[in-house]
Amino acid sequence: MRLDKFLKVSRLIKRRTMAKEVADQGRVLVNGLQAKAGTPVKPGDELTIQFGQKDVVVRVERMEENARKEDAATFYTVLKETRREQEDLF
Predict the structure, then answer these.
(1) pTM of this prediction?
(2) pLDDT digits 0-9 by tens, 79-89
(3) RNA-binding among the record's keywords (predicted)?
């Protein structure tokens, strides 16, 4: 499954267009490598996603083409969530 579609179906990112933009900006890593929206993901892959000042690392557990809201959280496991310190501009 494409990275952008997985991010949308799993509800890690709300809209697929936003998932595509985030991936194409280089803010998503798949198994430690920078990924584009079309990068294939499979169960067992580790995704690192930069959300503003927060980095979230998740492991892909399973995937389906469509999912109900209640099932979306079972598609991944959060491994680590860290907050990046804001860099001083001066």
Answers:
(1) 0.84
(2) 999 997 765 44
(3) yes
